[in-house]
Write a structure and sequence with these properties.
Number of domains of chain A: 1
CATH topology of chain B: Translation Initiation Factor IF3
Helix content of chain A: 25-40%
Oligomer: heterodimer
Strand order of the largest sheet of chain A: 4-3-2-1-5
Strand content of chain A: 15-25%
Largest sheet of chain B: 4 strands, mixed
Number of strands of chain A: 5
CATH architecture of chain A: 3-Layer(aba) Sandwich
Order of helices and strands of chain B: EHEHEE
Number of helices of chain B: 2
Protein name (chain A): NADH dehydrogenase
Number of helices of chain A: 6
CATH class of chain A: Alpha Beta
Largest interface: A-B, 14 and 15 residues
Distance between the termini of chain A: 31 Å
Strand content of chain B: 35-45%
Number of strands of chain B: 4
Structural class of chain B: alpha+beta
CATH class of chain B: Alpha Beta
Order of helices and strands of chain A: EHEHHHEHEHE
Shape of chain B: globular
CATH topology of chain A: Hypothetical Protein Ychn, Chain: A
Distance between the termini of chain B: 16 Å
Radius of gyration of chain B: 11 Å
CATH superfamily of chain B: TusA-like domain
CATH architecture of chain B: 2-Layer Sandwich
Largest sheet of chain A: 5 strands, parallel
Chain lengths: 160, 75
């Protein structure tokens, strides 16, 4: 196939495990469709890109508060429904295993392996006080113009 | 029919059968046939849709004891 590749872009705004899972399943499917895929993470969606280990960085009081109150990494995200103070995610992970589906952290690894471009919105990274050291490797930092450049050529553009 | 490669995707859920099929197909050359075995009911619609969009051709589909088998020729 010599014609130009199709494009899929997804804005992941949500920090919910289930919504992020949907985004990453679509991203992996689109990559298998041979699309160029970009996931643009902004606001709570940035938590999907956080390392689950604590990273030693210098922060102010507010930034520390934000870091404490947000889930550190994809595996610690809550559900958009039936979260039940943390029991919901445990239940979901149990049924994911039972049905041999892929949990979110593996979906993210698979997306990286398939060459999905993972982008962190620089402005919200700053707002939430996140430091590059706290985010996983292999991601890019960009703003609205870079997103629009991709999306204006996109065949599938989603906001999740 | 000459099957070049057999992909066992049994037990895997969406999106894995399609992701694995794409990976397996990348290793074949045009005209070669990939056999995909899956137990994912959604694959019945997924794999033909993926094949068509990617320029491949589904030659045959068989369903037996809950196992779906696809033969897909690389385009």
């Amino acid at each position: 196939m010599s014609q130009q590749k199709k494009k899929t872009t997804i804005i992941l705004f949500s920090g919910d495990y289930d919504k992020a899972m949907a985004a990453y399943i679509i991203a992996n499917g689109a990559a298998a469709y041979d699309h160029d895929v970009t996931i643009f993470h902004t606001f709570w969606g940035l938590n999907a890109l956080r390392k689950d280990a604590h990273a030693p960085v210098q922060k102010g009081f507010l930034e520390k508060m934000f870091a404490k109150m947000m889930p550190r990494g994809a595996d610690r995200m809550g559900l958009s429904r039936m979260n039940f103070a943390g029991i919901g995610p445990k239940l979901i992970k149990h049924v994911i295993k039972k049905h041999n589906a892929m949990p979110l952290p593996q979906l993210i690894d698979m997306a990286k392996e398939q060459g999905v471009k993972l982008v962190a919105c620089q402005m919200t990274v700053d707002l939430l006080g996140l430091k590059p050291e706290e985010l996983i490797d292999g991601i890019e930092f960009a703003g609205v113009a870079a997103y629009l450049a991709d999306a204006s050529e996109g065949n599938v553009n989603l906001f999740i | 029919m000459n099957v070049e490669k057999v992909l066992d995707a049994k037990g895997l859920s969406c999106p894995m059968p399609v992701v694995k099929a794409k990976k397996a197909m990348d290793e074949l050359t045009s005209g070669q046939v990939l056999e995909v075995q899956t137990t994912d009911k959604g694959a019945k619609s997924d794999l033909p849709a993926w094949a068509q969009a990617s320029g491949h051709k589904v030659i045959d589909i068989k369903e037996e004891n809950g196992i779906l088998t696809f033969w897909i020729e690389k385009g």
